[in-house]
Amino acid sequence: xxxxxxxxxxxxxxxxxxxxxxxxxxxxxxxxxxxxxxxxxxxxxxxxxxxxxxxxxxxxxxxxxxxxxxxxxxxxxxxxxxxxxxxxxxxxxxxxxxxxxxxxxxxxxx
Length: 110
Description:
Layout: E1 2-4, E2 10-17, E3 20-28, H1 31-43, E4 53-58, H2 63-76, E5 81-86, H3 89-95, E6 100-103
Parallel strand pairs: 4-5
Antiparallel strand pairs: 1-2, 2-3, 4-6
């Protein structure tokens, strides 16, 4: 997932490594641009994605952000189904307002 930091213009990509939540990448700039770069980083040049379904899951974010993320997802792949979903109470409480993630599946490795 991606969450805004408390500093101006910083957005962090969180990821789990060895059962610990760490900062995977730090994006800088406007929130809209950070979200576009985050989605592109996740989906572009990834040859093992399953293009059946993708979820855009979020806590409360401005409509401009959702529109940008939705457009970027469509530009990055021909997903059959794109669903926008609200994050549940655990994510919302722990990550807060402005958190957004894209959820998708990879092909199984042989």
